[in-house]
Amino acid sequence: IPSRFFLRPSGEPVDGDGDGMPDWWELSHGLDPDDPADASPDPDGDGLANLDEFLADWSIQVEKNVVVESTKMPTEKFWSISEYMLLLDDTDLEKYHYDSAIISSVVPALTEVLAEAVRRLIKGMNPIIIKSQSTSMLKLCVDEPAKVGTDRIVDATWAAAKYPLPAVTVDMGTATTINVIDEDKNFLGGMIAPGVVTSFRALVNNAAQLSEVPLVAPKNLIGKNTHGCMQSGAVVGAAAMVDGMVSRIEKQLGKRVTLLMTGGLAGVVEGLVEHEHVYDPDMLVRGMGLMCQALK
């Protein structure tokens, strides 16, 4: 599908029926781009309407009139190259022409497997694999640069290139990673804490009287029942950790920082963070795109 057909002159993706789902996404999923009513049905019965599916699984960025789409898929260490080729092939790779590919992996056993899957699917494509020495836009001022996760490098590189410094990035995924970048684009290090879901599941699995509840912001800080108490502890507690860490970082640096939040759970937590901040849900994808342009 020619991406230019789905861009307005401003560079924004076209959403002809105004239902919140871009036309290109509706067509690629068998929906009608002229029917706003198709945002509500849940054809696969998974509890997510079509609009929710789009918001949960896809992110669209428009920068310099280039549409970038990203999707999530499961990964397992023991899966073969062929199995990953099948997963990647389901994302309609043939729709687009590619001139480069880039991989940021924090699972070493999968890095080359994924790279080879890309090579076999897209003839002539040799993906760039991000390493600690990949970025010239950032200096890693830590004890063991080679051991810094590439996701942290990508987040920090994007922050250093696009936001006022010094900056702190908070990426809330399996782990919550916090990075500190000074005004000279030095990566100073940071913190790694258990992710919100990771710690929440550990609590449920190890406390006989507690069961899983939706990870959403509670109505009241002081919970009136077990579910409310758990939600407050998990979600408000995560926001309080961010505020506390940023305050301590600013005290150590002796200056205010730009706070950037991203990651799967940041959308749940960031509304409760008291520090002024920017919520950039696509920071990792944007950073990878920036590094790809610099490295290819």
In short:
The protein has 296 residues and is of the alpha/beta class. It is built from nine helices and ten strands.
N-to-C CA distance: 25 Å
Shape: globular
Strand composition percent = 15-25%
* SSE-based structural type: alpha/beta
Q: How many beta-strand runs?
A: 10
Query: What share of the residues lie within helices?
Result: 25-40%
Low-confidence stretches are 1-12, 57-67
Number of helices: 9
Strand order of the largest sheet: 5-8-7-6-9-10
Q: What's the SSE pattern? A: HHEEHEHEEHEEEHHEHEH
Overall pLDDT score: 83
Comma- or semicolon-separated keywords:
36% helix; globular; 296 residues; two-stranded antiparallel ribbon; alpha/beta; disordered N terminus; 9 helices; six-stranded mixed sheet
What's the SSE blueprint?
Layout (H helix, E strand, L loop, with lengths): L22 H6 L21 H8 E6 L2 E6 L9 H9 L12 E2 L4 H14 L6 E2 L9 E2 L9 H13 L4 E6 L2 E7 L4 E9 L1 H11 L19 H28 L4 E5 L3 H4 L8 E2 L3 H13 L1
Parallel strand pairs: 3-4, 5-8, 6-9, 9-10
Antiparallel strand pairs: 1-2, 6-7, 7-8
Helix pairs in contact: 3-4, 5-9, 6-7
Describe this structure in words.
The protein has 296 residues and is α/β, with parallel strands linked by helices. It contains 9 helices and 10 strands. The protein has a 6-stranded mixed β-sheet with strand order 5-8-7-6-9-10, with helices on both faces. A two-stranded antiparallel sheet has the order 1-2. Helix 5 packs across helix 9. The relative contact order is 0.11.
